[in-house]
Amino acid sequence: MGGHWRQGLRSVLLLSIACVSLHSSNGFLQKWPVPYKRFEFRPKTDPYCQAKYTFCPMGNGDGSIPVMKNEDIIQVYRLQAPVWEFKYGDLLGHFKIMHDAIGFRSSLTGKNYTAEWYELFQLGNCTFPHLRPNMEEPFWCNQGAACFYEGIDDDHWKSNGTLVPVASMSGVMFNSMAKWIKEDNDTGIYYQTWNVRASPEFNSSVWFDSYDCASFVLRTYQKLFELGATFNRKVQTNYTRLLLYSGEPAFLGNGTEIFGQHGNKSLALDIRKFYFLLRPHQSWKELLLSILDIYYKVAVDKNFYFFYNFEYWYLPLKFPYIKVVYDEIPLPS
Question: Where is the signal peptide, in residue numbers (predicted)?
Fold first, then answer.
């Protein structure tokens, strides 16, 4: 339990340090933001990756979603609460670090349901890798997935967050959404914490988009809108973004190209040194020293090695380097 608490503190300390277009990058045309890579199926998890808390303990084991009657009217709810609210109450809410989900209520049965998308192995494992003995390449435990279960925990969402109706739809639309969630879940397998932009300016270039709980809610809202759901645009909806600010990223290669037998040994060593500072399970003393080194890397050297689509990129960071924002993104219309 203490290791998980330190991991949460590490994330908070890191946070406190602080358009699609074509560009020429390394001799080829690069599309920005870099498209999130989809897969044909979800791989089995490696036994090395262990979750502190069981993923989706109240959901169906096969990930199934109940079928609604066509004539049913389903109310859709916006759900938001501080990250780790179950453990720390509204602590991270003061930093606008929020978790998002969607609630549903059947008018015919009166039953409530919750849908959310989050990390299989907790946030720290999805954001930073492990450096395993006798393994040159950093090892990532960064799968994420959808969780659907019966019930809405009113106390959880209301006490420090939000539980408000935002839309309504038919049972037909709900069943189409359920099919889409399965397809989306089977092909979008990994969690991505960071959103990388050129600057804090509103229209600045976006290099990489995050793929997290908020992204799932936004995708689902858009799908419901396409299916014909009616949204109440008067409800204001804000989402947490963990931002890195960088000049145009430089592509470095995949794991084999960097860490393989014929890889770039010097680059491999630099990447390992960088991620060593962010390793899990550090003692308090190690953590404090690492925070100082991280600050130097970010604010002085302005270096960041970024892992996306199972490939590595170099980010030449720019002021303000790292920032948490709580941006308004309106409901579909």
Answer: 1-27
**How far is Cα 287 from Cα 277, in angstroms, rounded to an integer?**
8
Q: Which amino acid is at 101?
A: A
130 a catalytic residue: no
| pLDDT digit string (tens) for the chain, length 333 residues | 444 444 444 444 444 433 333 444 454 578 999 999 999 988 888 999 988 889 999 998 778 899 999 999 999 999 999 998 877 888 888 888 999 999 999 999 999 999 999 999 988 888 889 999 889 999 999 999 999 999 999 988 988 899 999 999 999 999 999 999 999 999 999 999 999 999 999 899 999 999 999 999 999 999 999 999 999 999 999 999 999 999 999 999 999 999 999 999 999 999 999 988 877 666 767 667 666 777 767 777 788 999 999 999 999 999 999 899 999 999 998
Q: Is 99 one of the catalytic residues?
A: yes
Report the helix count and the strand count for the chain, using DSSP H and E: 9, 14
Question: Residue 15 and residue 243: Cα distance in Å, rounded?
Answer: 9
In whole angstroms, give the CA distance from residue 139 to residue 278. 13
Query: Could you give the 3-state DSSP secondary structure of residue 93?
Result: helix
Catalytic residue among 126, 141, 147, 213: 213
- Active-site entry in 94, 99, 156, 281: 99
